[in-house]
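Design a sequence for this backbone.
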């Protein structure tokens, strides 16, 4: 099975803020900055302020909002894409995160869990929010110099090891525009640059998260997972199996690697790291073993 088709890739950021809530650029300035950085689509997701979809000089704007709920030991932030005004107006802070996520899904929105490591989310909390369209594996503003938990791989692998395979996005969550912007994004395969096609690709998992490196192809054939990519210094295969010799392959300018599926593997995901230390993350790939 090949995971990428012949469709074109589009570059997008699904989480950013403006002066409508707590960002420092206006929506128009933020859109222009991303257009100049050659983004194909973005979603403005201000806190509890719904943005409208549309276009900015050929760049697709997805309607979005971030709903944030604060608890004593954790926060829950939900990026909701594709909500209409009526559905948004039915969601209240007092609903709590799980009910808000359910209401958004019922209205046809795509719900993404933001920065679970930064939020200190527990597996129990994340389980209450399922099903999710995606979870942020990397959130630039959750890392230095503002915070220290940009990468949420740990809790994502705990969920996957317990049967909840959630697709992964990388975002900037930019507020300050001090260098954190235009650093993390997704590359999404769709047959056209339209809201309908982008949402269909999100639903189908036809995307990967990245800070720069590219996946060219991921192919699962029998008990072998093969990856081709842009030049890499490391290709890492992660699964629910604790110890696997040879899961981390290092070299100079590598453009491919393969991994032999273990009998105990129930999922595998791939991280490609380039010479500058930037990563790309595949979605978790489910592994089904033939019954003997």
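Sequence:
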């Amino acid at each position: 099975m090949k995971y990428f088709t012949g469709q074109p890739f589009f570059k997008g950021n699904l989480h950013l803020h403006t002066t409508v809530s707590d960002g420092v650029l206006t929506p128009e300035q933020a859109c222009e900055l991303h257009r100049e950085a050659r983004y194909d689509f973005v979603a403005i997701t201000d806190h509890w302020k719904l943005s409208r979809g549309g276009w900015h000089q050929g760049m697709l704007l997805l309607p979005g909002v971030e709903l944030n709920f604060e608890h004593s030991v954790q926060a829950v932030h939900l990026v909701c894409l594709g909500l209409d005004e009526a559905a948004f107006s039915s969601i209240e802070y007092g609903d709590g995160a799980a009910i808000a996520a359910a209401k958004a899904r019922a209205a046809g929105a795509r719900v993404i869990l933001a920065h679970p490591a930064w939020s200190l989310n527990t597996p129990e909390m994340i389980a209450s929010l399922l099903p999710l369209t995606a979870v942020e594996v990397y959130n630039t503003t959750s890392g230095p110099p503002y915070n220290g938990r940009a990468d949420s791989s740990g809790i994502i692998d705990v969920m996957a090891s317990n049967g909840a395979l959630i697709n992964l996005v990388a975002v900037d969550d930019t507020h300050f525009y001090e260098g954190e912007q235009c650093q993390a994004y997704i590359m999404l395969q769709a047959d056209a640059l339209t809201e309908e096609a982008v949402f269909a690709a999100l639903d189908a998992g036809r995307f990967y998260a990245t800070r720069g490196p590219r996946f060219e192809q991921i192919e699962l054939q029998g008990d072998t997972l093969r990856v081709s990519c842009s030049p890499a210094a490391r290709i890492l295969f992660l699964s629910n199996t604790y110890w696997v010799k040879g899961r981390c392959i290092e070299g100079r300018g590598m453009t491919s690697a393969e991994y032999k599926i273990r009998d105990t593997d129930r999922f595998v995901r791939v991280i490609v790291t380039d010479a500058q230390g930037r990563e790309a993350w595949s979605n978790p790939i489910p592994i089904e073993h033939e019954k003997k």
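The chain has two domains: 9-208, 215-286.
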